[in-house]
Amino acid sequence: MAGPALMAVRDRYPGARLVGLGHPERWGLLATTLSLAEVWDSSESRWAPLFADGPLPAALQARLAPFQLALVFSPGSGTPVPARLRQAGIPAVHWVPSFPEAGREAVGALQARHLSGLGLLVATTSFRLNLPQPLAAKAPSIGSTGFPACAAPAKACGYQDNPVQANSDSKDLAALSGPGAWLAVAPGSGQALKNWPLAHYYEVSRALAWQYKLGVVWLAGPAEAGWTTYLEALAAAQGHLLLAGAPLAQVAAVLSRCRLFLGNDSGLTHLAAALGGPAVVALFGPTDPGVWAPPGKRVRILTGTCAQAPCARGRAIPCDTSQCLEDLSVERVLAVAGAILP
């Protein structure tokens, strides 16, 4: 969601050496797009003093001394990091909110407003993520013998723990291999109350696959680990693929080859929209699409009929059930998905 703001930084300082400090896997997705010089892992112990009191270690000050500007993206302004970066000698340090604590201002507009004082022009209408060429080159062979994904439709892939190479003679994948039309389905979000019912996803994916001759790949992250066995059986029954626990770079490569993406208010929905490949149908319930929806001409937002939705305030969802999403009918999602499929 900070992609447009980060692009504005790159465009404002074209000759600068840009370094990303944070989650290496996530920054890695942005490395090519932003022309990052380096990515530093914020989980390393060397960065702990930025969150504590007392003198900063000389080695840390020396590492930060060459920088003239630091932007700190975090949910609240109470983080000690900006003050510690100034203490390290960085002359210009600015806090940028990750999302609004209250109100309905879109994240992109909120960050643009905070950065306008630096002379940064943030384009909030869209953001395009460019994959590194070696990674993008792997994408066309989804489900074929060249794609390091699932050994069979019923198998879940776990790249990080047990890399699996596709079976060289996997006849079961023949119908879904090559550059054919693909539907990506991401039924999770990391928050159960933001998820459209899994049974609805099953109905929609089955109908779209049959009507539009689509291959289907289900995407599941760490938050959906408890669903893996069920998703394996679902994928096997329908001849679908399941990509579970894969690194974000591999997920991005898959998404870049898809024709349509269907998912909740989640990071994967934003990733799909940023890749510019698939049309995106995003399903929102308790969270406000006016704040959280990814921008893009090929993005369609659907919400339920609950009069109290959206009810979330920041990250907090007061409801005990996701009635707003349960009321979003399969027929409505099918109609919108069918209308945007070329």
Can I get a quick summary?
The chain is α/β, with parallel strands linked by helices and 342 residues long. It is built from 13 helices and 10 strands.
Descriptive notes:
The longest helix has 15 residues, at 198-212. The protein folds into two domains: 3-118, no CATH class; 139-340, 3-Layer(aba) Sandwich (Rossmann fold). It has 342 residues and is an alpha/beta fold. Mean pLDDT is 83; it is low at 136-177. The protein has 13 helices and ten strands. The strands form three sheets. The protein has a six-stranded parallel sheet with strand order 7-6-5-8-9-10, with helices on both faces. Strands 1-2 form a two-stranded parallel sheet. A two-stranded parallel sheet has the order 3-4. 36% of the residues are buried.
- Determine the CATH topology of the largest domain: Rossmann fold
Could you give the order of strands across the largest sheet? 7-6-5-8-9-10
CATH top level of the largest domain? Answer: Alpha Beta
Fourth-tier CATH superfamily name of the largest domain: Glycogen Phosphorylase B
Number of DSSP strand runs = 10
- Write down the overall mean pLDDT: 83
Give, in order, the helices and strands.
Answer: HEHEHEHEHHEHEHEHEHEHEHH
Strand content: 5-15%
The largest pleated sheet is described as:
6 strands, parallel
How far is the N terminus from the C terminus?
27 Å
Quickly give the CATH architecture of the largest domain: 3-Layer(aba) Sandwich
Give the count of helical stretches: 13
* Percent helix: 25-40%
Tell me, what's the shape? globular
Q: Indicate the structural class.
A: alpha/beta
Q: How many discrete structural domains?
A: 2
Rg of Cα set: 21 Å
Low-confidence stretches: 136-177
